[in-house]
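Standup notes
- DV: blocked on the single-chain target, sequence here:
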Amino acid sequence: QVQLVESGGGLVQPGGSLRLSCAVSGFTSRLSVMSWYRQVPGKEREVVARISSGGGSTDYAESVRGRFTISKDNVKNTIYLQMNSLKPEDTAVYYCKALLGVLEYWGKGTPVTVSS
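- DV (later): unblocked, structure below
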């Protein structure tokens, strides 16, 4: 069983920064791509960033490229999302997702609100 627990969300002013964390437990050595998604009420969940199992390959949504950085610490079994230059449209609940073969595991999410 894989468990994901997100943390680090909160209220931040436009232009500010936050770092989200996703603590991973269970079968961590067998996980492949790890991702961050976000969802706004009434809209579909969208991918924000992905990182390969070794951490050498990353991919970002166009809306966050250059502002967000995904990284991972394989010793701590934690995935991070550093978010800089935040905008009001970044307001959402952010979720961490892990792939184990064809199985998907999700955390419960952490809310981010960007507002003055």
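- Follow-up: Residues 11 and 113 are 5 Å apart (CA to CA).
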